[in-house]
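Below: protein 1.
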Amino acid sequence: MDENQRSSAGAPNEAESSAAFDDAFMHMAALRQQPGFVMAVDQAMRGLLSMYRGHLLPNRILNDRGRLALALCTLYLHHDPDRNGVGLTVTRLTNLCQDTGLCSRGRAKAMILLMRWAGFLEVGRASDNRAPSGRTRPLVPTQRLVDEQTRRWLIMSGALALLDPVGGRILAGLENPGFFGALIRQLGRRYVAGIRLLETAPALALFAERDGGLMMAFLLAMGANDAQAAGSETPAAVSISALARGCHVSRAHILKLAREAEAEGLLRRLPGPEGGILATSALHAGVEDFFAAAFSVLMSSGRDALAEIEAHAQQETDTIARPPLIPTPLRPGCGPDIRP
């Protein structure tokens, strides 16, 4: 792929990659030291679980983690046009999926078709495309996709607000479409630069690659939180049936994942007909690592997005305050003597 094609795909340059890596996870340790950290993680888990829906057909093409990343990439390209002014197109999105290792171009095209069928994407008018050639029709995220992703970031910023004031500023800013676009640009640039939450939470890698896997980890961690809140020293077991219902998958799927996770020391299965499952300290620590990283990335992205919006507002203010330059015509006889 040549330089122009890679730029069109949305790939970052070296400086952008370095800057994103420098700030993405820098707040993790400070966040974990906050007294409300466990409460913030619990609030975020419950909010994300309330949004979760199992999708049988998309699951056959891309797992839960992949679909979340694809939604971010879709909005990122829409809000971050290339040097020719081209926003979201099939070519840019499939190239970005390939370049970031999210999925192959073929899988990306299949997911684009499903997103159009489900009402998350639509084909824009030819006049919407600002490319010089004008031959590629753009894709446009629908309000349904924007609303769903806005809800996700409202949940995360609301939980972050328990730990740092910037969470409250992000929460308030999400009501502004301009700020939403700026936040998506900052989050997208970090993703394209190679920022991955699972790098900081390898214990969740097994769950993240399975349908409903992260939701299963969250349900188990919440069970432990509920038992602790009730004053019990023994973690509460979650039944296989409850996990299957909560994750919108079969009992067989839960059992297979549970056997593999138990072999890695992430959970413990109890004997009995229902076979309750307990989260181990390793899984609990992995969930907390995951959310510490997520909050940290949101903090750094949110601060840069707020700065972007403030700089834009200041630029507009300066433009309005600066009077236009109107040339004053010279009076007769006051100009330079240009006679030969």
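Below: protein 2.
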Amino acid sequence: MAAQRRAAEHFSAGNAHLKLNRFDEAAAAYAQALAADSSFAPARRNLAAAYARQGRLAAAAREYEQALAARPDHVDTRFNLGLVCLRLGRYQEARETLEQVLSAAPGHAPAACALGELYLEENALDSAVQAFERTFAIDSTYARAYAQLGRVRMGQGRLDEAVDLLRQALARDPGMAEPYRWLGQIYLRQGKEEAGQTTLKIYEKVKPFAGEIHLFQERLRDDPGDAEAHYGLGYLYGRLGLYPKALSHYRRAVELYPGHVKAHNNMGNIYLRLSMLDKAVAAYQQSISSDSTYAAAYSNLGQAYLYQGRMAEAVVVLERALSIDPQRTSAHQGLVEAYRRLGERAKSEAHRQALRSLTGGS
């Protein structure tokens, strides 16, 4: 019992590290869990996942194989082994493993898409097309399959079809980078210089975020109830200005974890940018109700009240923000405006001076 308890503690620590994308620490914790209890199957599966995300693919394959030996019926483990084999270039093993997944779970869209990508690596285009079309039949929202089939049609010179498929891919997941590059290249080949250059600029904007977006998406594939993964996607999509996509993930995050202070606050920020002031106010108030010491939400609520012309209420929450964080410049900025519009010039000037002191302005 003591060994199992230690294993469970290390496993929990590994999960915490994995949720923060700290893969080295996660792998070490899972290894400690297995040292305490070598039969702890979830720890072995998660150790394999951590190795895969570190790029230690051969080690990941070994752990997945051991996990499958203990649980041959575990479909997700078999699928993840197939992906690792694909990345290792072990195509025969990958094909057999992915086909086993689809035999056990015919509705497994990621496996169908991965099989298509394997066929692409082997230049078996007809088989790749069939696999991607099978993916659509399973899940018509699976963006990666649209992107990969668009790539195939682009290579075949069927540019109009490729454009349509790539647009569909990006409509479903605008956080993928490569479809923007392929689409931009097609536009240039079609003589659409402005559209091509614009799309390639979007590619350059999205590219730095695409890897992190993919990691969070992988986490949600493994655990759809991961509130922090939804929050992370909301944050990244928000940084990219993809507000509808960001809001959908923030909403899911607060459904799973109603007290997620930052998710409520960031939803408010998006609503504020979209001039949806009532929704912004409600989101900030929810953030504050979850944590009455969260200065950012008070300051942001004050800004929303300013936009609504609710000067007295703005003063109350902005002063509260400063009582928590006296150096919050946004709260001083808001109070400069609120007191000015209330006719209290001395107070407005006092906050202007405080703001200058904090920012080094003259």
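The chain is about 80% helix and 0% strand.
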